[in-house]
Amino acid sequence: MSQEDVPAVFDLERVSFQNSSWTIDAFYHELEQNNFAHYFVMTYDEAIIGYIGLWIVVDQAQITTVAVAPEYRGYGLGQLLLNYVKNFASAIATMMSLEVRENNLVAQHVYKKLGFQYGGKRKNYYGDGEDACVMWVNLND
Ligand SMILES: CC(C)(COP(=O)(O)OP(=O)(O)OC[C@H]1O[C@@H](n2cnc3c(N)ncnc32)[C@H](O)[C@@H]1OP(=O)(O)O)[C@@H](O)C(=O)NCCC(=O)NCCS
């Protein structure tokens, strides 16, 4: 992901998450200021149809966000994005984790297919009070 990609990524963010706490400046900040951050876009016919971000701190990787454009969902692209960053992170980190809304069963299904397991719950994690499930995968497996 480059700075020029951010407006299109942010459009995708807005259609993908109802109560997102991300601002457009947060994306610019991640790209310009956060040395732990790695962000990728997926393109088709030069349009951005998906994106994913992660932080890698020492041997721990954490997915910060992932989305596929609504019209491209259900074709395996979310799994492709996640597999890509699993491979990317496994060169550096030993464990990858993420938080997912308790009611986001599609995302949880995708994470489970990629080997993530439930690690616990964060109560009232989201601004609207919904709990988060913590999921993690061992990158050495
Ligand atoms: C989560 C997301 C990235 C997945 O992307 P995608 O490209 O649709 O994912 P895939 O096509 O790789 O896989 C979708 C899987 O969910 C399954 N699925 C579809 N609807 C489902 C439902 N209602 N309940 C459970 N699983 C469902 C599909 O069958 C498929 O699984 P399969 O491969 O076993 O058949 C996408 O749905 C998205 O952008 N959602 C909005 C943003 C979001 O919630 N991000 C995650 C934040 S933690």
What is the element layout, followed by pairings?
Elements: H1 6-16, H2 24-33, E1 37-44, E2 47-57, E3 60-68, H3 77-90, E4 95-101, H4 105-113, E5 117-122, E6 132-138
Parallel strand pairs: 3-4
Antiparallel strand pairs: 1-2, 2-3, 4-6, 5-6
Residues 16-17, 66-68, 73-79, 100, 104-107, 109-110, 113 line the site of coenzyme A.
In CATH, what is the class? Alpha Beta
Biggest sheet layout: 6 strands, mixed
Shape verdict: globular
Structural class: alpha+beta
Percent helix among the residues?
Answer: 25-40%
What percent strand?
A: 25-35%
What is the total domain count? 1
CATH architecture assignment name:
3-Layer(aba) Sandwich
Instruction: Report the average pLDDT across residues.
Output: 97
- Looking at how many chains there are and whether they match, the oligomeric state comes to single chain
- What's the arrangement of strands in the largest beta sheet? 1-2-3-4-6-5
Chemical compounds bound to the protein: coenzyme A
The value of Rg in angstroms is 14 Å
State the end-to-end CA separation: 28 Å
CATH topology: Aminopeptidase
CATH fourth-tier homologous superfamily:
Gcn5-related N-acetyltransferase (GNAT)
Annotation field: number of helices: 4
How many strands appear in the DSSP assignment?
6
Low-confidence stretches: none
Give the SSE string.
HHEEEHEHEE
